[in-house]
Specification:
It is a single chain. This protein has 237 residues and is α/β, with parallel strands linked by helices. The protein has one domain (5-230): 2-enoyl-CoA Hydratase, Chain A, domain 1, CATH 3.90.226. It has 6 helices and 13 strands. The strands form 3 sheets. The protein has a 6-stranded mixed sheet. It has a 4-stranded mixed sheet with strand order 8-10-12-13. A 3-stranded antiparallel sheet has the order 1-2-3, with no helix packed on it. Helix 1 runs parallel beside helix 2, helix 2 packs parallel to helix 3 (148-154) and helix 4 (188-199) crosses helix 5 (204-214). It is globular. The chain starts with 18 loop residues before the first strand and ends with a helix. Mean pLDDT is 80; it is low at 1-35 and 38-58.
């Protein structure tokens, strides 16, 4: 399968749009770790286009949780929890495996700031690793899971999304600019996702419907929704 650079939704924030208004929200979180409390302050700026038809969000943690150890985009919060706070890349599966060797009791991934991935093949591998270990995925209130990060949320054996959790999906595009609809429905480029969703527990029809939804908007845009709508597509715990 081609390496897909298009799943990094944060790139959308670089698109210039006329903004008639902007809203800034601040979320403060506290994590208990063996070394004490870790404080995080996240500022989210939402820009609205003049006609209200599009929305671009840049969510930048003012202070991402440092935790007790760092492995690529993961931060170990304590003996049983890790946080995902950055873009995944080709090295993320190795970082995950190193993390669970050092902290084998980790059973929950807190998905705090998940913009997407720079390497989709590696991202799907990472999702399978999370699933194989039976880990749960949790998006807290104010947590943002976008683009390729959604595949990682689906990897949870248990999936938890609090009210106020944010998701965003959009069509992928390969390095030549082609998107899902430019390939046959059963082409390997499309089957890779449907097969993955089935591995994550979806029935075939559910997997195809969810995949169609993610490709319902072009790469340059995004579809935003919350925990309630996510619960209509996949089982939440």
């Amino acid at each position: 399968m081609r390496r897909l650079f298009a799943l990094l939704l944060s790139l959308i924030a670089l698109v210039a749009v006329p903004a008639a208004a902007a809203e800034v929200s601040v979320t403060e979180r506290v994590y208990d770790t063996p070394q004490g409390k870790v404080y995080e302050r996240v500022e989210t700026t939402t820009y609205y286009a003049e006609e209200g038809s599009q929305r671009f969000v840049s969510s930048v943690p003012a202070s991402a949780p440092k935790g007790i150890a760092r492995f690529g985009p993961f931060r170990v919060l304590d003996a049983t929890r890790a946080a995902l706070v950055d873009v995944t890349d080709a090295d993320s599966p190795r970082a995950f495996e190193a993390m669970v060797r050092a902290y084998p009791g980790i059973a929950l991934i807190e998905m705090i700031e998940c913009p997407g991935t720079e390497d989709d093949r590696a991202n799907l591998k990472l999702g399978r690793l999370i699933r194989a270990r039976g880990m749960a995925t949790h998006v807290p209130a104010g947590g943002s899971v976008r683009s390729g990060g959604v595949e990682l949320f689906l990897a949870g054996k248990q999936r938890i999304a609090d009210p106020g959790a944010e998701f965003a999906v959009h069509a992928w595009a390969d390095e030549d600019g082609r998107q899902a609809t430019d390939y046959a429905a059963n082409a390997p480029e499309n089957r890779a996702y449907i097969d993955y969703y089935r591995e994550m527990g979806m029935a075939d029809g559910e997997a195809k419907a969810f995949y169609a939804m993610t490709n319902s908007v072009p790469f340059e845009q995004a579809r935003w929704f919350g925990a309630e709508e996510m619960g209509k597509w996949v089982r939440l715990d």
